[in-house]
Write a structure and sequence with these properties.
- The complex is a heterodimer.
- Helices cover 72% and strands 0% of the residues of chain A.
- Chain A is mainly alpha-helical.
- In chain A, helix 1 runs parallel beside helix 3 and helix 2 crosses helix 3.
- The longest helix of chain A is centred in the middle third of the chain and has 49 residues.
- Chain A is rod-shaped and about 115 Å long.
- Chain A starts with 8 loop residues before the first helix and ends with a helix.
- Chain B is mostly helical.
- Chain B has one domain: PhyR, sigma-like (SL) domain (Butyryl-CoA Dehydrogenase, subunit A, domain 3).
- Chain B is built from 10 helices and no strands.
- In chain B, helix 3 packs across helix 5 and helix 4 packs across helix 5.
Chain lengths: 177, 195
């Protein structure tokens, strides 16, 4: 297919778009269009599209501009909130990761050096300022002997409780957001 | 105390977003209402005729305006003028329509049969019957878009390239072929009526 356009196409198109074809155009242009395939196609197609456009524009049922404005505001607001939330979520993930790393490091350190620091807990009941704690815990809880199974159990329970409480706090914080 | 209250104006809507020039809307609500009144009908006509589905046209038109207002770098209504805003709006609508056509099928839009997008609305179908519909329904979706933008909206090749995202140099050839094809179809239609 050869791509040949007529130099008078722009003139013809402008007339058709302004609705001046064929009444308000020179007779020589009409004669030219009759003999020029490109221009006659242009007139046929442009006139058909202009009629279709006028008809469709008249048939359009428009919604409220205010509603669209409100929807756009809502979307932009949500996008802004999301932008703000993203670093907070990243910070939460970072904090959780740090906690896990610290917990793992402590666990490894404890495994290597034993639970020597727990001897401090054995002396806890002798501390005058914390005397009242002894009345709260069952007798013998802090008596970690060499063969006692209580020390790892206490550690596990304490870590589990911390994780549980931390998880619940994180959940409620996310819910509030 | 929630974190929202510690960060000022996050949820204040307009006030907070006007602070950031990137997020500022292209126009105020009154200017938008006027712009909408002047541009919505032609946008709907474009979408309805090229998609053949008035309901889809309505949905895409609304989404186009919302996206236009949410643009990170919108054309300025005052600086660039209404013509630029209108062109941008047509560009958004064209992309949304193309996305819609691509979504349900994995095949390229060019490979889809033309009659897949035939008119479904009764009123539009009857109107199209009289004017342009049958011929337009036989064209490829991209050709319909090009023809509508060129002959109904009167956009130049450069503007059509901006709207459709096609290369400016290829618009002329694509439009030439599409026009020749639809002219042939319209002529056949006219001959059929006369006979």
């Amino acid at each position: 297919m050869t791509l040949r356009s007529c130099p008078r196409e722009a003139e013809v198109k402008a007339l058709v778009e302004r609705g001046q074809w064929p009444q308000a155009c020179a007779s020589d242009l009409r004669t030219h269009v009759d003999s020029c395939r490109s221009c006659s196609e242009l007139v046929l197609v442009t006139a058909a599209f202009q009629r279709a456009r006028n008809h469709a524009v008249g048939a359009a049922k428009l919604g409220s501009a205010g509603l669209l404005w409100w929807r756009a505001q809502l979307r932009r607001r949500n996008a802004a909130v999301e932008r703000i939330s993203r670093p907070i979520l990243s910070a939460q993930i970072f904090a959780l990761a740090v906690n896990l790393v610290v917990a793992a490091a402590v666990a490894v350190w404890q495994a290597r050096h034993g639970v020597a620091w727990l001897t401090w807990l054995e002396q806890l009941p002798h501390n005058v300022s914390l005397q009242f704690l002894t009345s709260l815990v069952p007798e013998g809880l802090f008596n970690f002997g060499a063969g006692s199974l209580m020390s790892p159990l206490v550690l596990i329970f304490a870590a589990s409780a911390l994780l549980l409480v931390g998880g619940v706090v994180a959940y409620f914080a996310s819910e509030k957001q | 105390m929630f974190w929202e209250s510690s960060i000022p104006n996050v949820l204040a809507g307009d006030a907070s977003l006007e602070v950031s020039p990137a997020a500022a809307p292209p126009m105020d609500d009154e200017a938008f209402a006027a712009f909408y009144e002047r541009s919505a009908r032609s946008l709907w006509a474009y979408l309805a005729r090229t998609s053949g589905d008035p309901t889809l046209a309505e949905d895409i038109m609304q989404e186009s305006y919302v996206r236009f207002l949410c643009l990170a770098n919108p054309p300025s209504y005052l600086a660039d003028g209404e013509v630029a805003c209108r062109r941008y709006l047509f560009r958004i609508a064209t992309n949304l329509l193309r996305d819609h056509w691509r979504r349900p099928r994995s095949a390229s839009i060019e490979e889809m049969p033309e009659n897949l997008f035939a008119c479904v609305d009764e009123q539009v179908a009857s109107d199209s019957q009289m004017i342009l519909g049958p011929a337009l329904a036989q064209m490829r979706p991209r050709d319909r878009q090009l023809l509508w933008l060129a002959h109904a909206e009167g956009y130049s090749h450069h503007e059509i390239a901006e709207i459709t995202g096609l290369a400016s140099a290829s618009i002329r050839l694509l439009l030439f072929r599409a026009r020749r094809k639809i002219a042939y179809l319209l002529q056949n239609q006219n001959r059929g009526r006369q006979a």
